[in-house]
Amino acid sequence: MSNSKGFLKSSIGRKAIMGLTGLFLVTFLIVHVSINSLLFVGDSGATFNAAANFMAHNPVIRVVEIGLFAGLILHTVQALLLTLANRKARPQGYAVVNGAANSSWYSRSMGLLGTLLLLFLVMHLYHFWWPTKVAVFTDHEHNTFDEIKAVFTDGTMGIISVLLYVIGCISLAYHLLHGFQSGFQTLGLNHKKYTPLIKKTGIGFSIIVSLLFALMPIGFLIGFIK
Amino acid sequence: MAGTSGKTINVTIKVWRQKNKNQKGQFETHPMKGVSVDMSFLEMFDVLNDRLITEGKDPVAFDHDCREGICGMCSMYINGRPHGPKQGVTTCQLHMRSFKDGDTIVVEPWRSAAFPVVKDLAVDRSAFDRIIASGGFVSVNTGNARDANSILIPKDDADQAFNAAACIGCGACVAACKNGSAMLFVSAKVSQLALLPQGQIERDERVLNMVNQMDEEGFGNCTNTAACEAECPKGISLENIARLNREYISASNFANRK
Amino acid sequence: MATSPKLDSKIPDGPLDQKWTKYRSTVALVNPANKRNLEVIVVGSGLAGASAAASLAEMGYKVKVFCFQDSPRRAHSIAAQGGINAAKNYQNDGDSIYRLFYDTIKGGDYRSREANVHRLSEVSGSIIDQCVAQGVPFAREYGGLLSNRSFGGTQVQRTFYAAGQTGQQLLLGAYSALQRQVGMGAVKLYARHEMLDVVNIDGKCQGIIARHSVTGQLERHFGHAVLLCTGGYGNVFFLSTNAMGSNVTAAWKAHKKGAFFSNPCYTQIHPTCIPVSGEHQSKLTLMSESLRNDGRIWVPKNKADAEAIRAGKLDPNNLKEDDRDYYLERRYPAFGNLVPRDVASRAAKERCDAGFGVNGTGQAVYLDFAFNMKYKYGKIEATKKGIENPTEAQLDEFGHAVIKEKYGNLFDMYAQITGVDPYKNPMQIYPAVHYTMGGLWVDYNLMTTVPGLYALGEANFSDHGANRLGASALMQGLADGYFVIPYTIGSYLSKEISTKAISLDHEAFVKAEQDVQERINKLLSIKGTKTVDYFHKRLGKVIWDKCGMARNAEGLKWAIEEVRRIREEFWKDVRVPGEANEFNPELEKAGRVADFIELGELMCKDALERNESCGGHFREEYQAADGEAERDDENFAYVAAWELKEVGNWELHKEELVYENIKIAKRSYK
User: What is the gyration radius of the CA atoms in chain C, in angstroms?
Assistant: First the structure.
């Protein structure tokens, strides 16, 4: 007896989708943070622009990008559906909940953190994805580095943007702090020897990736990235 | 009310009262004076009920039986935590020395759509029985067994299976989980039998049926907060949920059968 | 002495070791098509009930299971810690069916039936096979084989165990088998239902009246046979190691409808329980008997020291070795701290009554691990580590680790309940009621004196005589349910295949339900001034003081009168809150306590009748000069079976115990 038909509708099947899409998005972050780190090279964005240009024009990358958006949407929609289902599992809540006694706040706030990330993402796409990756088809004379720099050095608006980006990065850090190891657990990958390693890697990954991302807008603002 | 230690405290109990599953409930407040710290939490409720009965009021209904932490019947949500502030104990094994003089203690029933309130603090956990009935067994009729020592089991597997089998079915995992998920409970039984050679024959079918029943009962989904593991009075490990996931994913997608 | 004609034990003829095999092969069978039309009611879902219900359903009978708890998995079998005996001889240490049989008869102080005990011993091995096949995670050796330990002073290692939770694991095994049948529709489960009467029609038991605890609705259920698997009556003492809900009600209702009650005075007092901490105490917790393997039991030698300890002025750790009285080692040099339960319990009581008890109440003795921790385990570990002259601190540290490994969970439990660290201070223990050997009289088929009405497990009287050995209760419950009743029920049901299901409107059902309803109404209408617990505590104290570890004629006579007074007052002055048609735990409790009061009188009567000391029954008048029990085999080698004429009036019937295979001897542990 197999159950591949009911799988996607089952609780564990839906969890598995969350885990799989989550870990897929993690792999995207690795690419994203690697390329963006080229901003720190210090050559006024020459290396970075070359890489960005490649990412914007390589057809394989563009196809994968569609998959990326599909993953993101699936992750979000599934999260929404699961949250609604979970609410139904406890129609009457407790008067007193001492969640801190048994779990971390961020593991209980993945919905909130996810929503913050989504809002951030809308802004982020508006800032960069649209001009560099959509407008790229019409306007070939594109200096991505300069455009990024403009966003964060635009007076008061620049400071607000940096602030919003830092908040976004903090949300990302906490979302990953739980999500990274949680994804493995959901897919059934729990092992006496390797799970502690996965957990440590998850913590390291969350902090390093988010920190690198956060340093970029800050770098532009304080003139560290030139 | 003083016990052997002679120490007493005064506390205020805010307890949930609800006549039955169809009626709305509300909190009721009872000051408790001179409570011996040697009392168990349930004995403190005995004293309260004694008073209520004498005053001509309705005593607080709550589930309890063995009062030694093994039957799994007691089920109070105390100050925001199932079975109260101490880790690794059931409500019946919680003692008043875990509270301070002047404390206000809020007591609620397990809250879950799958555990409707029977009265006050007592809830209906028959969903757990139905989950076990759907597959939490090895199909071996009485008399069919071969000699016990003809099945060799590595000690480590036997120990792990035992640790999973230590679940008392109290439902604290469901009560603790912000999503009202029963996965720790289900995973404990699935793990126990998946780890033992006796459980292999029905391995796929078992996990599919049990998860299916769990979903039908209206429990929520796991988001790996690990609150269940932290609150489980028997220390059932989260590893079991990973194993449940693994078993289910594999049985759903890779079992080479019709 | 001749056996009463009303008591036909139906023991098969033939040599002891062939009785069961032969009977099993010749007992009437019910063909599969007929089984589907035969309904069996099982009351109680512990080891006996769950295993019987599952096995009968597997065979094809239609089964209904009733339990008062919210789930069958809560039954109090779950709390058994130590283990389960079986004559497997896996350890090659000379165990055999005969040896287990002999130990059980001797342990029971020669007051049980040879044929029943031998059968129990014969099927013990199959129980282990069955449980392992179900996935019960027994403790194992590194080679993958089952592990055994010795238990309760036996000289062979025949006890199978799952850490300190053997009862739990065995019950969950039986429960899973039961739930499997529920899932298949072969068993219908009635949780939160309490049986409140049996219904007899045409001289046979044909059904029960049960109350649904949530709605308060009374229900009538028909059955071709009714199995009472409802456990023991230890809660008559109010304080016991039983669960709060454990009760005698089902057995007592059966008794009132014609089932004889046997040997109610045989109660087992367990020596190692955590002492009472105050007035509020609602139950007692057992500390596993295995602790006596390494703990030494003592009280102060001088009364002045005992008084100082009680007043909190003296720390027992500071009491010099010479000022301690290791009274078990002193009185029983051969067995020392490992004497059987009844002997150890009485010795503790003797010391406390003489004024040497510790604890605020004076009702406790010490169970001290300090010596073995340091000088036994500490030294062994030091030797293993190659330390030749270990310091005291090293010995302490090494020994601590060993004790923690062996008894960690028990020590934690002790600390949790008492708030005292047992690694640093001696544990305090005191005996408490643990198990009742008496119960409904049953024949070899486990049928009571009412045709069609059976009693299994602790609810019957059959296998343990006057005292039960450790790790034998689980064995008996499962033997009855898995391997005895599935065969023996055939001898009755094979004659019932033509009995049609009786209409629930039959006058006997109507009348029984009316009686139950009236009793409930009566309880609710008294509206007196005292709570149910008040009466229960009063009853418990009388029974504990006068019909507990030691009894005498004078005290028992007084107790009978006192229990009657309690009964009278109860029915005049009890206060039961709430309504009949709602979830009302107090009402349930009231009904149970009313039955306990009636039973209490019979216990004292039985104890008064038995002019000897045997097993759990110790009559102060019948002891040797050194305080040891004196059995009277000439006049009391019988099973007492009480027939109820009306409440407070019983007729005694005797079943003579004939020993054809064992020579009766004095039980000595000196």
Answer: 25
A171 token code pair: 């949300």
CATH, range B8-113: 3.10.20.30
The Cα A98–Cα B29 span in angstroms is 20
Q: Give tens-digit pLDDT for C300-340.
A: 999 999 999 999 899 999 999 999 999 999 999 888 898 88
Query: Is the pLDDT confidence value at A136 over 70?
Result: no
Chain B hits for C360, CB-CB cut-off 8 Å, are 4, 6
Q: Are A11 and B230 in contact (CB < 8 Å)?
A: no
Token pair 């109440």 is at which residue? Answer: C361
- Region of poorest pLDDT, from B1-5, B174-178, C565-569: B1-5
Is the CB of residue B89 less than 8 Å away from at least one CB of chain A? Answer: no
Please choose, from the candidates C385, C183, C332, the residue with its C-alpha nearest in 3D space to the C-alpha of residue C667: C332
Q: How many CB atoms lie within 10 A of CB C405?
A: 9
CA distance C119 to C443: 13
DSSP 3-state of C296:
strand
Instruction: With beta carbons under 8 A apart, name residues in chain B contacting C577.
Output: 52-53, 56-59
How confident is the model at residue B98, as a pLDDT? 96
Q: What is the ipTM of this complex?
A: 0.97
* CA-derived radius of gyration, chain B: 21
Encoded amino acid at A217, one letter: P
Q: Do B95 and C165 touch (CB under 8 A)?
A: no
Pick A188's closest partner by Cβ from B112, B204, B243: B243
Output the 3-class SS for C93-113: CCCCHHHHHHHHHHHCCCCCC
Helix (H, G, I), strand (E, B) or coil at B151: coil
What is the spatial distance between Cα C260 and Cα C438, in angstroms, rounded to a whole number? 11
Q: Do B245 and A188 touch (CB under 8 A)?
A: yes
Q: Could you tell me the strand order of the sheet in which C218-222 lies? A: C193-201, C204-212, C218-222
Cα distance between residue B77 and residue C9, in whole Å: 52
What percent of chain C has pLDDT above 90?
A: 87
* Cβ-defined contact of B225 to A108 (cutoff 8 Å): yes
The 10 Å Cβ neighbour count of residue A150 is 14
**Are the beta carbons of C7 and C449 closer than 8 angstroms?**
yes
C466/C436 Cα distance (integer angstroms): 9
The structure tokens listed for C288 are 């596993």
pLDDT tens string C428-456: 999 999 999 999 999 999 999 999 999 99
Chain B CB contacts of A4 under 8 Å are 252-253
Pairing between β-strand C225-228 and β-strand C218-222 as defined by DSSP bridges: unpaired
CATH number of A10-222: 1.20.1300.10
Please state, in angstroms and rounded to a whole number, the distance separating the CA atoms of residues C391 and B70.
40
Nearest chain B residue to A6, by CA = B252
Digit-coded pLDDT (tens) for C120-177: 999 999 999 999 999 999 999 999 999 998 886 678 999 999 988 999 999 999 999 9
Go through the domains of chain C in sequence order and give each one's CATH number.
272-433 (3.90.700.10), 507-636 (1.20.58.100)
Measuring CA to CA, which residue among A151, A158, A155 is closest to residue A132?
Answer: A151
Minimum CA–CA partner of B40 in chain C: C417
Residues in A touching B105 (Cβ below 8 Å):
none
Look at C74 and B134 and tell me if their CB atoms are within 8 Å: no
Average pLDDT, chain A: 92
What percent of chain B has a predicted confidence (pLDDT) above 70? 97
Confidence (pLDDT) at C155: 82
Is C90 close to B149, i.e. CB distance below 8 A? yes
End-to-end CA distance of chain B: 65
B30 confidence band (pLDDT: 50, 70, 90): very high
Spell out the domain ranges in chain A.
10-222
Which numeric CATH code is attached to B125-139+152-253? Answer: 1.10.1060.10
